[in-house]
Amino acid sequence: MDFFDKAGIMTIGTRFRMLNEKMTEDANKIYPMYNVDMKPKWFPVFYIVSKEGEKSITEIANQIGHSHPSVSKIVREMINHKVLSEKKDKNDGRKNNIRLTAKGKQIADRIEDQYADVKKAVAKILDQSKFNMWYAIEEFEMLLEQKSLLQRVKEEKKYREAKKIQIVPYDPKYNESFKRLNQEWIETYFEMEEADHKALDNPEKYIIDKGGKILFALYENEPVGVCALIKMENHEYDFELAKMAVLPKMKGKGIGYLLGKSVIEEAKSLGAQKLYLESNTILKPAIQLYKKLGFQKVIGFFTPYARCNIQMGLEIKKNIDINYR
Amino acid sequence: MDFFDKAGIMTIGTRFRMLNEKMTEDANKIYPMYNVDMKPKWFPVFYIVSKEGEKSITEIANQIGHSHPSVSKIVREMINHKVLSEKKDKNDGRKNNIRLTAKGKQIADRIEDQYADVKKAVAKILDQSKFNMWYAIEEFEMLLEQKSLLQRVKEEKKYREAKKIQIVPYDPKYNESFKRLNQEWIETYFEMEEADHKALDNPEKYIIDKGGKILFALYENEPVGVCALIKMENHEYDFELAKMAVLPKMKGKGIGYLLGKSVIEEAKSLGAQKLYLESNTILKPAIQLYKKLGFQKVIGFFTPYARCNIQMGLEIKKNIDINYR
DNA sequence: TATATTTACGTAATTAGTTACGTAAATAAC
DNA sequence: GTTATTTACGTAACTAATTACGTAAATATA
User: Fold this and answer.
1) For B46-66, how does the pLDDT look when each residue is reduced to its tens digit (9 = 90+)?
2) What pTM was estimated for this model as a whole?
3) Cys-Cys with B259: which of A228, A293, B103, B227 at CB 3.0–4.6 Å?
C-alpha cells in the first residue's frame, strides 16, 4: 500500500499484522483440509512437543519465543481438546510436563503431509521472489542485534545535529553566556570559588588579554557550549584547557568533543606543545571526554581550585607533513 | 532462531510479533528524544492527519489498514492528549472530522527531524542487506495477492495426492465397488433405473463382453473412482463414456479428470473416433469436467435413461505422428 | 413520499498476546 | 540447618487489536 511506502518503518507493526492476519485466515482453512484439530496459535506449542517429546511449560515458552503464561493458556486449551496431557515432574514438583495424547500423535501423523505441501507452496513463492522474505527477515534481525534501531537513530541524530553546530571565537557579546554556562555546572556539583569569579566576570582581562582563547559552540546561533584556553606562564605546560561547559539539555550531541578538538587545534596553531587541565573525578563524563581527547593523568602541580582532585596533561603531536612533490 | 527455520512459515506470526516488539520498544524511546508526545500505536493516525489534513474516522481507518473502532479509540486517546480535535461534519451529520490541534502541529513540526533520522538509519540497514526486507515483504504480499497461500497449498495437495492415484483395468474383484460408487450418486440426485441395474449388477456381461472397458482409480489400493466405456453398435459414435463416479470424500483431487483422460486414451487405442455421453445439467461439476475433457453438446439421439437431459460428443484427434527420419 | 438499504461510527465483547504478582519447590549461601 | 535467592508456573490485570452490534444519518427505491 502507498501509505507504507510513505510512512516507512514506523508502520512496520501494521504491515506485519496485516500480513499475519491474511496468513492466519488461510491457516484456519488449511488445517481442516488435513483433518487436523488445530488452531494457528496452537501450532508452535504443538510443533515443539511433537518433534521433541515431553517438555515443561517454561522449556516450550523459551523455544517458541512466547511468555510462559501464554504457553500455559495455550496448553490448557489443547488439554481441553485432548491434544495434550500434563503430568507433574517426579523429581521437580514445580515442573508440569506436557506431552501428546493419542489424539495428538494422530494429528502429528496426519499433519506431516501438510508440512510438505505448505513448505512446497512457500518455497515456490520464495523462488519467484527477487528478495527472499525469509532470509530478509533473518538478515534484518541479525543487523538489529548487532546494533539496535535506537542506537542507529541516535547516531543519525547526533551526526545531523553536529552539522548544525558552529564553533566560533570569543566575542564580548557572549560574555553573559560564558558565565552562565559555567556557573550552571559549578554550582550543581561544587561552589563558585575566587578564581571562578575572576575569570567568568572578566574573561577579556583574565584570559584573552593574557594570550588565551575562548571558543563558543553555537546551535542555531545560540551559544550552547564553551571552552577556554588559558595561557600558563613559567610552566612546563603552555596552556590550560579550562572553563569547559555544555548546556545540560544539549548534552549527548558531541558538542564537548567538538569544542575540545577545536581548542586543541587552536593551541597547536599557537605553537603549543603541552596542554594541562584540572578537574574532579566525580565529573565522570568530563574525565571520559578528556581521555578521549588524549589527556592522561599527571600529578604534582599547584592549583588554586579547591574542587580539583585530578590533573591531566596532553602532548600535542605535530602533524606529519607528507610532501608528495 | 532455529525453531523458525525448522517449523517454517506456520510460525511467521510469532516471528513478526517478536520483531515488532523489538521495534516498538525502540520507538517508545525514540519519540522522547525528539520531544514528541507520541505512542507508536498513534503514529499511523497521526501521520495521515498531519500529511493530508482533516479526515473522518473511516477515511483514516481505510488508509492505514485498521478497523474503524481501532481508529475511533486511538483518536479518543489522542484527543485526551490534546494532539487531535474532532468536529461534526456540517454536511453529513454522521461524520466526525479529525484534525491536528496546535500541539499536534507542533509535534508534526518537531517530528520531521525524526523521520529523516529514522529513514537514514533504516536505509543503512537495508543497504547492508542482501535481501531488502522492505521490498521482500512487498513482493511477498504481491505474490499472495495473485494467488493466496490457501490456493497454493490446495494445489500442492492435489498434485501430491494425484501421484498416489493409480488407474487400473477392470477386475471382477471390484464389481461391488463399481456398483456402490455409482449407486451412491445416482440415488443422491435421481433414482436407479432399469438400465442401471443391468449394467451395475453384471458389468462383465453388459460391458466387458460386448467389447467395452471399465477403468478404476485406486487410492492406497482402494477403489475410489470408476468410469466405463460402453461399445455402441450401429451408431454414429463408437463408444459411450458412462458410469463415471468418484467417492464424495475424494472429490477435488482431480480423480475424475484422470479417469476421463485414461478412458479417452483407452478408446483411442481401440481405434475409436467418436465418443458419446449422457448426463443431466444439475450435475454441474460433471458437465464442467466433460467440457474440460473436450466434449461438446450434441442433440437428437435416443436414450433409455429418464434422467438424461443433455447429450455430449467428442471427436478423438489422432496423434500427429511427426517422423524426423 | 414512505420504506428499505447503506454508511459512519460509537460501544461492547472477544482474542491473543503481554506484564505483574503470588506461591511453592529447588538451590545457594551462610 | 536455617535463611535467602532463584525458578516454575498459575492467575489476574492490561494492551492493542479485532468482530459484533446498535443507532442515527444519508441515499436509493418503489
Assistant:
1) 999 999 999 999 999 999 999
2) 0.73
3) B227
